[in-house]
Design goal:
Bound molecules: shikimate-3-phosphate
Number of strands: 32
Distance between the termini: 29 Å
Radius of gyration: 29 Å
CATH topology of the largest domain: UDP-n-acetylglucosamine1-carboxyvinyl-transferase, Chain
Helix content: 25-40%
Structural class: alpha/beta
Amino acid sequence: MKRLAVIGLGLIGASCCAAIKKRAPDWNISGYSRTEATRQQALAKGLIDQSFESIAGAVRQADLILIAVPMGQFRQVFENVDATRDSSSVVTDAGSTKGSVIRDIFSVLESIPSWFVPGHPIAGSEQSGVDAANPDLYVDHQVILTPDLNTAADAIDLVSFFWKIQGASVSQMDVERHDEVLALTSHLPHVLAFNLVHALSDDDEHLEIFRYAAGGFRDFTRIAASDPTMWRDISLANQQALLSGIDRFAERLDQMRNAIARGDGDWIMQSFDRARTARTLFSSLTDQGAHPVTETHPSVFTTTEASQGITGTIRVPGDKSISHRSIMLGALADGITTVDGFLEGEDAIATVQAFRDMGVRIEGPHEGRVTVHGVGRDGLKAPAAALYMGNSGTSMRLLSGILAGQVFDSELTGDSSLSRRPMRRVSMPLGQLGAVLATSEDGTPPVKISGGQHLMGCHTDMQVASAQVKSALLLAGLYADGETSVTEPAPTRDHTERMLQGFGYPVKRQGATASVIGGGRLTACHIDVPSDISSAAFFLVAASIVPGSDLTLSHVGINPTRVGILEILKLMGADIEVMDAREVGGEPVADLRVRYAPLNGIDVPESLVPLAIDEFPVLFVAACCASGQTRVTGAEELRVKESDRIQSMVDGLKALGVAIEGTPDGAVIQGGGPDFRFASASVEAHEDHRIAMAFSVAGLLSEGGVVVNDCANVATSFPNFVGLARETGFPLTVSS
Ligand code: S3P
């Protein structure tokens, strides 16, 4: 049994009492409130076991003391707690600002005691008081703890445990970061809501106005019904961070005012559109159970055995490679480019965002449609800050080529996975053209590009078969004097070459060499993005291995440089029919019908490896279900993708009971044949979208289900994977 003392029985404190009573009824709770009526109510509702008129009484013998009072009372309450607590008790708080708490404690003790763990539950309601106590207030919400180096580890453990049993997830941040983030995501919106309602209520006709205020006003101002005392205290406690948030907002509002005054519909449209895209992305993050203030979005996929085949007709989202390029070339073109079928995934959005940051007006994506108002080959503007590429290697490498030819300096950064990936493969050959790019010492991002260089076309014999390197060189070649040519050691995807031609820019192709002559211009066009064969691959394998399957994937891109997956699966005996092959906007497209068929192990021809480079994670899964051995060689590039894909698959498949050995450039897999079942286990996706989806497919043939951790990055390439998978018969659930 634990003894908990709750100081302050408002919404936050009383909801903790209610949650603990519901989920850990053996805890004993002492409650303190300044008001007699509140104490009586808390007792009557069974929220506390005993009430006290003094803090000293409440904290006696407590294991854990929660201070849940308005920020303005914190210092005085803390003094009291400090003077009367047992020496072994741990103290935490629930205040919305953390810098002020630390300052208050410092002013009392001149140090921060190891027994104090600052905390902030990111939950609340516009309702206040003990009456509003809600036992589920913290379920699926984040609690941020801001301990310092001196805080005792067991104190942090106890406070984490306290919140976790209430259903919350707990993360840690430093104090300054917490206050900055919360100023923008919580305190500023409250100030704005209070302010808007106040401004309207000054109006003589406010009753009339409120009577007719519809959904927008109601939604926007819900939080203006919150407790004014609490929000006054928060506003003053987080003064500096809030002031800078208000200043930033005021500047934007001023710009919007000016745009409206001068009737600048384009400016307004761009601003609204950008906000809308950001809001949609934010919703997709929060819908996955993540909270916007954390940088990681924990997401766990669990697939259990499919009792029936994978069936139906689906269209997977737009091709990632083509989507990126449509924005890049559309931005550099003269005129307005329209794109249909655009992939609304985080990677492609990173590219959209980067070009917006360089002054390009881009509308959408909205239901797959994007409109890019090209600025011409030399029309990009210097971005105000580093361009953030998220998880997207394609964005970073192709943009390196484009930015190498600009007159301004720039910098490209990315998330933790991208920050580990090799960038010298682009910085070195671009250097041969006269570009100046710097990476970190080990050749990884950030990539810093010095603009204003005079690029001279030259020839490059590529060391690795990489479409990204080839594309970076060709795109830099648009800005170079004379001819830029590149020879690839094996065929790689040729979307850049095709699309440049679609924009009226000549590309010479001779055998393994592609070349452009600098100085030309691109003319805007319309682009139809086919479905991504790399996303279709998960379904091609799923339907091939689950008996009774019959699935049609419509409008899939079957560019010859991408069809390695079809060739390899066919060599393994898969039943895939290519139907209604046609050409759409310069790219070949078809509907693919796939039916269950027993597979055989093969030695994958090395010539097919670059044509299926992104599909190996799920091909490994197919190989496990084939009869006999499958050997993959010549695929060392897999080690430098979003994760080391050989290692990620070997580790996970071993945990699932597969006889697999990794090699430096591939793997050898002993397939179990049609009756094979994966063992039930929990495996890691290593923040790699394709690893996550590959293991989700494995679960379809598992004895007791496969749990895949760390799947949030599926949103980078296949935002509606879960929905489509379920539609075709995957028993797939998501949790956080
Ligand atoms: C891509 C090329 C491939 C591929 C990546 C997308 C592209 O990378 O793995 O997902 O759009 O050019 P490499 O060119 O590095 O092999």
